[in-house]
Specification:
Distance between the termini: 57 Å
InterPro entries: Leu-rich_rpt (IPR001611), Leu-rich_rpt_typical-subtyp (IPR003591), LRR_5 (IPR026906), LRR_dom_sf (IPR032675), SLRP (IPR050333)
Number of helices: 1
Order of helices and strands: EEEEEEEEEEEEEEEEEHEEEE
Structural class: mainly beta
Strand content: 15-25%
Protein name: Leucine-rich repeat-containing G-protein coupled receptor 5
Keywords: Leucine-rich repeat, Receptor, Repeat
Shape: elongated
Helix content: under 10%
Pfam families: LRR_5
Strand order of the largest sheet: 1-2-4-6-7-9-11-12-14-16
Length: 288
């Protein structure tokens, strides 16, 4: 933990332009200010490890803004109570020079609309990326290429139409993937193909119509899939190893063919339970 002398807290100071910091500074909290642009204000701050821009109306970031921050491990961006930060994109190569030690990154509540290929080039050792609550509509299939240690990825509460097939290629360490509350209709067969360590998959509140054959077969047997059956428009195909879990949690699974089951959401008036497979009638309500 940092001592008071190692961390500078500048929140609520209504900072809107560049400012001076000692070269020895290790943490800077800039929450709740009026920063619109991030330029070269951190030049020479080689010891800085934590930087927080949460709740600022950011519009732009200079491509070399973090070129001297090779010790940086934690970075946070985001809008404020008055609305989303106006920034719509992040410069190519922003982390290329000094991103290796950036283990945790949060970018929330912005106008970011597309994650371009290699947006995180240089962030090879990151373990946590929280990209939720933006306006992201699409993701380049190589957006996360080069990141080898990713454990947690949150893409929830965006405008994603789909997840590209090779988006998560090589992410064998990923434990948690969240993309709930997006307008995703199709889960393709290979999108989870390399997620051999995944334990938690959150995909509820998407208008899912199709989960292609084999999409879930790559997941480990003790994975937890968080989905709300009402958001699934059609039956989904589930491998034998996951059939019991779906049967216990609001689905009726039958019509087995080559180890694949058709699972349908329990109809209104019934529910899934952990004692009996399939759907069970809801108990009668109490008369008042």
């Amino acid at each position: 933990m940092m001592s008071a002398g190692e961390q500078e807290k500048l929140s609520y100071n209504i900072i809107s332009k560049s400012f001076e910091l000692p070269d020895s500074i290790r943490g800077v909290n800039l929450q709740n200010n009026k920063l619109k642009d991030v330029g070269e204000m951190f030049r020479g701050k080689q010891k800085l490890t934590e930087l927080d821009f949460l709740w600022n109306p950011l519009i732009s970031i200079a491509p070399n803004a973090f070129d001297d921050l090779c010790a940086l491990t934690q970075l946070t961006f985001g809008g404020n109570d008055d609305g989303k930060a106006q920034i719509r994109s992040f410069p190519s190569g922003l982390f290329q020079k000094c991103g290796k030690n950036l283990f945790e990154m949060t970018i929330q509540n912005t106008h970011w609309q597309r994650i371009e290929d290699h947006s995180f080039h240089g962030v090879s050792e990151s373990v946590s990326l929280d990209l939720s609550q933006n306006l992201i509509q699409s993701v380049g299939k190589d957006a996360f290429a080069g990141i080898t240690s990713l454990i947690y990825l949150d893409l929830s509460d965006n405008n994603l139409q789909y997840l590209p097939d090779n988006l998560l290629k090589g992410q064998t360490n990923l434990l948690a993937l969240l993309f709930q509350r997006n307008p995703i209709k199709t889960i393709t067969a290979n999108v989870f193909a390399d997620l051999t360590s995944l334990r938690s998959l959150h995909m509820y509140v998407n208008p899912i119509e199709v989960i292609e054959n084999e999409a879930l077969q790559h997941l480990r047997e003790n994975s937890t899939i968080h989905c709300i059956s009402d958001s699934l428009a059609v039956p989904i195909e589930v491998p034998d190893k996951l059939k019991d879990a779906f049967s216990h949690d609001g689905f009726d699974c039958d019509n087995e063919h080559d180890g694949i089951f058709q699972c349908r959401a329990c109809p209104v008036g019934t529910y899934g339970n952990r004692v009996h497979h399939g759907c069970v009638n809801c108990p009668a309500g109490k008369k008042w």
